[in-house]
Structures are given as C-alpha cells and as structure tokens.
Design goal:
- The protein has one helix and 62 strands.
- It has 766 residues and is an all-beta fold.
- It folds into seven domains: 102 residues, Immunoglobulin-like (Sandwich), CATH 2.60.40.1120; 101 residues, Immunoglobulin-like (Sandwich), CATH 2.60.40.180; 101 residues, Sandwich (Immunoglobulin-like); 73 residues, Immunoglobulin-like; 81 residues, Immunoglobulin-like; 88 residues, Immunoglobulins (Immunoglobulin-like); 141 residues.
- The strands form 13 sheets. Strands 52, 53, 54, 55, 56, 57, 58, 59, 60, 61 and 62 form an eleven-stranded mixed β-sheet that branches. Strands 2, 3, 5, 6 and 7 form a five-stranded antiparallel β-sheet that branches. Strands 11, 12, 14, 15 and 16 form a five-stranded antiparallel β-sheet that branches.
- A hairpin with a 5-residue loop joins β41 and β42.
Length: 766
C-alpha cells in the first residue's frame, strides 16, 4: 500500500470514531469542568423504582477498554429508585446496575446489556448532564453445596464460576461471567443471574488436594453439562469434589540457573498418548526460582510441555528431554501423590554459541567478538539488553534492569557470510525491596492512635517482611499499614523507620516524622464539704490522655489567697484536694488550675457561699436586706420531673441579716402552677449581699413535704452593675439524693451569671 493509501485509511478511522462519539447520549453543556449522570432505576416486574441499587460508572477509552487514569464512581439509588452522580469527570463511561440480592432482579449494564464487553458507552461532557434510566429484568438463582469427597465435610473457599454459553457449549460473551466462593458451610448462592445457559466450574483452594471439576462430576470444559437458569427460579448445583493429584517441578538452563516465566502445559492423554478431551488442559508458569506447582489435577496420564518465554534462545521441550508431542514421555499422576516433572532447557540448535558469556543481573560485561583484524558487521539486537558501539571488535552488553536468564545475539565478520552467535547467561542477583510512605509527617494528639500507610514491592517476588522502629505494622498485597499508641506528647515525637526485608540480605527502608501534641488535662466539677461554717474541704478529679504525664495544682480561694493542691495520680489521671478557712462569710469563686509536665493547663471554678450572714458595715447594721416578688416564663426543660411543661412561675421572698445574728431570717415562696408545685422555705442557711447581687440558700418543702433545699441568686437591675433589668436564678433539689426538681438555667453551674429576666414584679436590695 502506498503512503496516500495509508493516510486515507487513517483519516477514515478517525472519522468513524468521531461519528461513534457523536452518537453517544449527551445533554446540556455548562461552564464547569465536571458533569452529572442521573437517572431512575425501575423493576420490569413491578414497574416501580428499585432502592439501594449500586450504580457503578466505569471510565473507559474510545475502544471500550478501562481507562485507569480516572477513578470508578459508585452511587446508590434512593428509596424511589433515583440516583445522581455529581462532579463526574468528563469522558466516556460504561454503567453497571447491581440490585440488592433480595430483589430477584438481574445485574445489567446501560441499555439492557448483560456484559461489560458488549455494554454501550455514555459520554459525559464537560459541564454537561446525562440522564440514564434502566429497567431491570427478573433474574434467576443458582445455589448449591460443595462437599470434600475425601473427608465428607463441607468444602469452604471453593471458587464457583458460572460461564455463559450458547446451546453448542461455546462461550457467550454477551453475558458476564459470574464467580463467587463457598462459605464456611460449603454453601454458595448466586442471585441476580441473567437467565440462560451456563457451564459451572468448581476450583478448590490450594492445600485441599481436591480436583477442579465441572457440574455433575465432569472433568473438562468440552464435556461439561449445560444448565438452564430460568427467571424467578433456583437451579440447585451441588457437587462432591474428588481427591486430586499434585504435580511440581523445577526448570533451569544448562548452566544451572533457574528460568522464570516458563509456561508449563499439562496435556491429559489416553494410554496411546493422544489427547484426552474428557479432562481439561492445565497451564502454570515458573516463578523467579524456576519452580511451579499444581495441586488440583484429575489423576491420570499426562504429557508435560515446557515453553520458554518468547525471545530467549532456549528450545521448547517435553518432559524427559523430548522434543515432539508424539515422542513425549507419558507421566502417570496418581491421587494422594506428589509427582515431580523438572526440565533442563537447551539452547536452540541454530543458536549454539560460538561465544559464551556470563554476567550478573544489572551488571554490564565487555565481550570480545573477534581476536583477528577482521571487522564485525550485521549485529542483531539482544532480546533482554542493549549493546554499545563496536570498538576494536569489542562491545559492551548491558542487561535490561532486573532481568536474569538467557540472552544472546548474532553478528557476521567482514565478508558478511560467516554468522557468529553470542550466548549470554545473566545470573540472578538479589534486588532490594522497595517501600514508601503515604504521609511524610503524621500529627496526632497524645492518647490517640497514630496511623500511616504506604506501598511495598519486590521485583524478585521474595517473601518480604515489613517492620517498624516503633509501633506495629501489618502487611497486605503491595501495601502496609502502621499504627502506634502515642502515650505522651511531645516526648513521643520522633522519626519512624519502616523496613522491607526480603530474607536474602536485601532491606529497603523509608521514614516519616511522628509529631505528638500535648493535650491539656481536663478537670471534672469541683465538690465541696464543710465541717465548719467558714472552713471548707474541696476535691476534684482530673484526667489526661498522656498516661506518662505528671501534674501539679493550685487552688485559688477567691479571697486573695492560694495554696498548692494535693495530687494523687496514676497513668495521667487522678485527684486534687485542698482545704481553706475563710475569715468572714461571703460568696467566693474557687478556682483549681492543673498543669501537666509539658505545660498543658486545665481549669475549673465553682461559686461557694459560706453559711451565715455577710456582716454589714457598722453604719448599715439592721438595714441591709433583699426583697423580691414577681414572675417569669418557665420554659420546657426547667421542671425536671416533666420537661415538657411550661408556663408562668411566681415567686416572693424577703431575706435579712439581723444585728449580731449568725443566720439570716426571712421567707421564700415559689409557685409553678403548670406542675402544681408550691415550694415554701422553712429556714435560711446563708445570705450574701454584694452590690447588685444577693445570694441566699436554705431548706423548705414542696406541697407540704419536707426534705428539699433551694438556692437563689437575685439581681437588682437598678443597682450599679445591675444592667437595668431584674434577673433571678432559682434551683430546688431533693436533699436525700441531690436530684434537681427545678432549675431555670438547666445545665449551668450555680456560679453562672443569672440570665432569666422578670416579666413582672421587681427585686430590691435595701
């Protein structure tokens, strides 16, 4: 074909692809770079929307193959069957709809397709939207039980594969292949199956010494029974797996080096040596050590073929050093046996070396092609390396990175008639495993678990162990996950090193920084006891997630004095206690400050009113008292026995310190009609009047029943600092269990500033 012809064909292909893309469903364009896919998924059986359908958007290329540069997207339908994927990267997608197994509906692809390969593509334009609806058809079900024929017990972990086929037994690629695994009881159940014809294959896990079988005890694809899956019906496919045979071996070259990637084909044969179609042909490949192993063969007669990787100067051979299938030795592989079939592959006859060279993996070697003055020409390229220019009839051969095994090339002398062969054996060398970290710096608070992750790889395929300088690490396929309980910040901050050890002397490493932040201690509420009127004992518990922290504490008594707290602690948590004697009655703010060894500080305060009367100045004796009466709106949540109640709360009180009296006198009454609650004081215990504020407490009864206590803070809004509005705080509780009955500032400490304003009435400090 001339160049114009080739150009014409290329243009035609581009036009064809453009027309295909133009026919894909697209809608309006916007100004953003992302697109939207939405739609409605219904049941063809009921016509109703189907909820919880998993809608998977597979990014694809123009030829329908997976586009791994964009991530798959998963969304689920809502209760009405609608779904929406926003911020969808522009491009081509295939869409799969997976209903819940309980619906009895099929897995489908967009436009009623049943397989990924044949499914239609959807084009999401930049800033555009696409509406894709789908009606799911009724599915069939295949279930069964797989039994271990050796023990009679259920066989767990068996891979059950359902292959869609035509009536002639050939694969039907318009429907997806389905596979699943038996559970611990040997059972499996495949729902949402597209009705039609199938072959079923059972592949046992390694180590069970069971055969691969097809449904109804068949041993090959060609002879496998075809089952029919019908809509809304269940096909039972039980199977008993018989005992299998094991074949293993080692493949090397004449120099003794192992050969990897050799394809080992196991042909079932009859006694006369011809193919036995009643059993499947099996393939395996040698690993980096030249070994292979197959555990699930059907016992019988076999011929074994070893095929080296294309491009290596090694010849294909059959077991026992035979070169043709007809001459191949027949090997008997019995049940309960492990049979070895190894091979030494020879160089092909046309490539018998005139020059033989060995070197190590990743190590260049100089090769002298001719000792005479003749010149070299027509050098071919090696399959697994490169050659330098010829200088003085010498070349430098450099093997491809990480390659080991046979290689070679040919050349001719100056008369270009005498072909010379160079055979090269690249000896394997251990490569260091590679490991990296996802986060170069990890931040965590003390008491929390720090985590990091990353990837590891080993081109040699060694069994790699992953370790860490601190913490614990788990390994999965090509990934590792690290965790560490950071008990003390910042002292636990440090560099962390991960190592990957291949067991052959190769150790790779990667590091990251761990930064552990100190967390301040937390103080619970301060509790008080009072053996004397002006003497007080206080205590509080504190906690700190830094279990190695130690703590100090300071009590501030509110009268201008402080004292060191007595600390009792273990593992970062403990208690602080203290005691103090006030010189005169009053209302005091007591503050506890707890500091850890790293400078973290926690603080808590309470308001403490000493029992008794605050003595008035001599000029005010007999004149300082407080009166109040009025009402405010009691909101839901203030009356604790029934937090739904609300309404008007009325109160009235008078409280006074008489000359030379140690206890106040007066009376208080509180009435909440919505709860039928009437509180009446029986005695006052303390009264403190300071500026615009009066604080008094005592005991009383509710609806005639004794055993209650009360606490009132009254603000005279007309006094300096009163803010112009009268406000009141009221709390009533049962003395026996301290259970709160009423609190017009629920959840707030008694020291909190009163916020409830009077709607009617007044408070007057005289």
């Amino acid at each position: 074909m001339n160049e114009l012809g080739k150009l014409g064909k290329a243009i035609a292909l581009l036009v064809s692809i453009s027309l295909m893309l133009a026919m894909l469903p697209t809608v309006s364009f916007g100004t953003t770079t992302s697109g939207i896919i939405s739609g409605h998924v219904t049941s063809e059986v009921t016509g109703e929307g189907v909820s919880k359908v998993k809608v998977t958007l597979y990014p694809v290329n123009a030829d329908g193959s997976n586009d791994y540069c964009r991530a798959k997207i998963y969304v689920y339908t809502n209760s009405s069957g609608y779904y929406e994927s926003t911020n969808t990267a522009p491009g081509l997608y295939k869409i799969r709809f997976t209903p819940p197994s309980t619906t009895g509906l099929q897995i489908e692809y967009f436009n009623d397709k049943k397989a990924f390969e044949t499914s239609d593509m959807v084009n999401v334009p930049s800033g555009g939207s696409v509406v894709i609806d789908e009606a799911l058809e009724q599915a069939g079900t295949v279930s069964g039980h797989v039994t271990n024929g050796i023990t009679g017990n259920p066989s767990a972990g068996v891979k059950v594969t359902l292959y869609p086929v035509y009536s002639n037994g050939k694969p039907d690629y318009s429907r997806d292949r389905i596979y699943l695994y038996t559970d611990s009881n040997g059972n499996f159940k495949a729902t949402y199956i597209v009705p039609g014809l199938y072959k079923i294959r059972y592949t046992p896990p390694d180590g069970t010494h069971l055969q691969i079988e097809y449904f109804n005890d068949k041993k090959s694809w060609d002879f496998a029974d075809i089952i029919t899956v019908l809509p809304a019906e269940t096909f039972i496919a039980d199977e008993v797996l018989e005992e299998g045979a094991t074949l293993f071996g080692h493949v090397q070259c004449a120099a003794g080096n192992p050969i990897k990637d050799v394809k080992v084909t196991i042909y079932p044969v009859t006694g006369s040596g011809v193919r036995d179609l009643g059993r499947d042909r099996i393939y395996a490949y040698t690993d980096a050590s030249g070994n292979y192993r197959i555990e699930y063969l059907v016992p019988g007669l076999y011929k074994i073929m070893f095929t080296p990787k294309e491009g290596t100067p090694l010849q294909q051979e059959y077991f026992d050093n035979k070169t043709t299938f007809s001459d191949a030795t027949i090997l008997t592989i019995g049940a309960e046996e492990e049979t070895e079939a190894s091979a030494v592959l020879e160089l092909t006859s046309c490539d018998r070396p005139g020059i033989y060279v060995e070197t190590d993996e990743d190590t260049p070697v100089e090769i002298t092609l001719l000792e005479s003055s003749a010149t070299v020409c027509n050098i071919t390229n090696p399959s697994h390396g490169s050659l330098s220019d010829v200088v003085n009839n010498k070349v430098i051969y450099t093997p491809d990175p990480n390659y080991s095994g046979p290689d070679g090339f040919t050349f001719k002398t100056s008369n270009c008639s005498d072909v010379k062969t160079v055979a090269i054996n690249v000896r394997p060398a251990n490569d260091l495993p590679e490991i990296n970290v996802a986060m170069p710096t990890v931040f965590v608070n003390e008491g929390q678990e720090a985590t990091n992750t990353g990837r590891w790889s080993d081109i040699d395929g060694d069994d790699v162990s992953i370790g860490a300088s601190i913490g614990s690490v788990t390994k999965s396929v090509n990934r590792w996950n690290w965790s560490y309980l950071a008990v003390d910040g910042p002292d636990s901050s440090q560099g962390v090193t991960l190592t990957a050890d291949d067991g052959n002397g190769g150790i790779g490493s990667a590091s990251f920084e761990l930064i552990v932040n100190n967390v301040a201690p937390t103080i619970s509420s301060i509790t008080t006891t009072s053996a004397a009127r002006l003497s007080i004992d206080v205590s509080a518990n504190f906690s700190d997630p830094g279990i190695l922290d130690t703590h100090t504490g300071i009590w501030e008594w509110g009268d201008g004095t402080t004292s060191t707290a007595t600390i009792a602690e273990a593992n970062g948590s403990g208690s602080a206690t203290g005691s103090h004697t006030y010189s005169s009655p009053g209302s005091y703010t007591i503050t506890l400050t707890i500091a850890d060894k790293d400078g973290g500080v926690g603080e808590a305060s309470i308001q403490y009113v000493t029992p008794g009367c605050t003595p008035p100045p001599p000029s005010d004796e007999g004149k300082r008292f407080v009166t109040g009466g009025g009402w405010f709106n009691s909101l839901p949540g203030m009356y604790m026995p029934d937090k739904s109640l609300k309404g008007k709360l009325s109160f009235g009180f008078v409280a006074k310190c008489l000359p030379k009296s140690k206890t106040p006198e007066g009376e208080a009454e509180i009435q909440f009609r919505a709860a039928d609650m009437n509180f009446h004081s029986t005695k006052y215990k303390s009264l403190v009047i300071e500026g615009e504020r009066a604080v008094f407490e005592g005991e009383g009864k509710i609806n005639g029943e004794n055993g209650y206590a009360f606490y009132i803070v009254a603000i005279d809004g007309q006094k300096a600092g009163g803010g112009g509005t009268d406000k009141i705080r009221i709390r009533i509780w049962k003395k026996s269990d301290r259970k709160i009955v009423y609190d017009n500032m629920p959840g707030k400490a008694l020291s909190a500033e009163p916020k409830v304003a009077l709607v009617g009435g007044s408070i007057v400090i005289h």
